[in-house]
């Protein structure tokens, strides 16, 4: 428990402000803690007069914490095809594994997926745990969860990364819960702290107003889901050598409560903005559905697609599938042209890793200029037609 020494406490309230769980309040000049305390220790660190102390033994550290080693990536596959996010995770996983001086492994489950194993090695994995079984062909969270949990308990990796996709989001929390491990969902940044090898997991918090860095110091494995299109895959190296370990999975783990009656592939003719190399995005500054015609013209001229801020989507000028940002899609195109978009953090988290960002905005102080590679200050209704015309002329040369 948290011990408070009222003789030392000066009632300054710093700990109260520091506590993210609202567990401390200052009453009659001394800090008081309630049941919401998670023993995270941030109040202890903030107290200049050392009036707070976490009782020895109060924090349960997993007994075998130092036995866990290696970075793992869950390599998601659908209909026999490896999801792009798996390669992105191997890209960041490789860096983390090099820093830790450990192996990078991928867990590949599915039916008929064996031939995909070399692509994961080329993308950075040292070892593939391969479960190729007809029962795994159809994603079912209980079976996938059982198999991953079984493997984790057997091999004891220190870090597990998975895509923050419909699949990753559905079964990774279940595995974390069963293992009693910490999980940070929807990470946008991962790093290793040099001093103690801790995984630092960064994600937007409090409605995207701050970026929080989360660590799980007391349990293993450290688990994180990562948004697609945030991390960069490595260039495939076809010469890379790796080991493929074929799993023999006990039958009981392949028993499911779920019976899949039918698979229906969603049919839509919308472009997937996550796969497009040039995006021209419109925001509130575009003013109307009609204004988006200018955005579309420029996008068409560049062979790209149209994206949008939430303000534009909420105004009904363009469908949600085009929304970029925290509650939309994360994109990483070669070129992102932001037109009439202020660059709020919730938008920026979805596009800031674009290779080149061009911003058109009439407000020279708009935050979008802080992340833009090139900025044009002016009225988009004048600039965009000129830009489209110029590109058209250049193409005709
Ligand atoms: C929990 C949460 C989640 C969110 N998720 C998202 C998300 O996923 N994506 C997202 O985009 N937002 C998201 N938001 C909203 C976000 O905070 C901003 O409100 C939103 O991004 C603003 O959109 P905007 O930049 O188009 O509009 P504004 O902030 O209103 O900016 C409009 C810009 O256009 C410029 N402008 C106006 N007229 C012209 C002109 N004629 N020529 C040139 N420039 C002009 C203005 O100077 C201004 O900078 C979220 C908010 C919350 C709280």
The CATH topology assignment of the largest domain is: Rossmann fold
Strand order of the largest sheet: 11-15-10-5-8-9-16
**Average pLDDT number:** 93
Provide the list of bound ligands, each named once.
flavin-adenine dinucleotide
DSSP E strands, number: 21
Radius of gyration: 25 Å
By DSSP (H or I, 4+ residues per run), the number of helices equals: 11
Largest sheet: 7 strands, parallel
Terminal-residue CA separation: 75 Å
Give a quick summary of the entry:
This protein is an alpha/beta fold and 397 residues long. 26% of the residues lie in helices and 24% in strands. Strand 13 (199-205) and strand 14 (210-214) form a beta hairpin.
If you had to describe this structure to a student in words, what would you say it looks like?
The chain is an alpha/beta fold. It has three domains: 2-54, Alpha-Beta Plaits, CATH 3.30.70; 65-254, Rossmann fold, CATH 3.40.50; 273-396, TPP-binding domain (Rossmann fold), CATH 3.40.50.1220. It is 26% helix and 24% strand. The chain is built from eleven helices and 21 strands. The strands form six sheets. Strands 11-15-10-5-8-9-16 form a seven-stranded parallel β-sheet, with helices on both faces. It has a five-stranded parallel β-sheet with strand order 18-17-19-20-21. A hairpin with a 2-residue loop joins strand 2 and strand 3 (30-33). Helix 5 (141-155) packs across helix 6 (166-179) and helix 7 runs parallel beside helix 11. The site of flavin-adenine dinucleotide has 30 residues, from helix 8, helix 9, strand 20 and helix 11.
